[in-house]
Amino acid sequence: QVQFVESGGRSVQPGDSLRLSCAASGLTLGDYAIGWFRQVPGMRREGVSCVSASDGSTYYADSVKGRFTTSRDNAMSTVYLEMNNLKPEDTAVYYCAANLMRRLCTPGAREYEYAYWGQGTQVTVSS
After folding, report:
1. Given pLDDT bands bounded at 50, 70 and 90, which one contains residue 29?
2. 42: left (phi over 0), alpha (psi -120 to 50) or beta
3. Which helix (H) or strand (E) holds 69?
4. What residues form DSSP beta bridges with 81?
5. Angle 61-68-46 (CA atoms, 0-180°, nearest 5)?
6. pLDDT tens, 57-111?
7. Are 51 and 72 in contact (CB under 8 A)?
8. What's the rounded Cα separation, in Å, for the pair 44 and 77?
């Protein structure tokens, strides 16, 4: 059984940093591109970042580019999302998932390509 578990979310102040973790089990993490997404209640889930399976290359949404960094440790079967200079608009539930259709992250990837969604971890940025 494949399972993704996100952790590390909490309440922080604007300008603070957080590191989220995505622990995978039941699959060989290195075979998949892994995406981070976030969702605010009542809004569509938004793609935040992606780290490729093939070469470890990354892709970021414009809203987080330069502030967020995603990385992977295949040996530990874990993917990370380092978030710096957090803003109130980063407040959301953050999810990770595996892309079943491509190993290389591209801007054209769609949410339906992803599976094995975790339960999410809440990040709240507020003063």
Report:
1. very high
2. left
3. strand 68-73
4. 20, 70
5. 35
6. 999 999 999 999 999 999 999 999 999 999 999 999 999 999 999 899 988 788 9
7. yes
8. 28
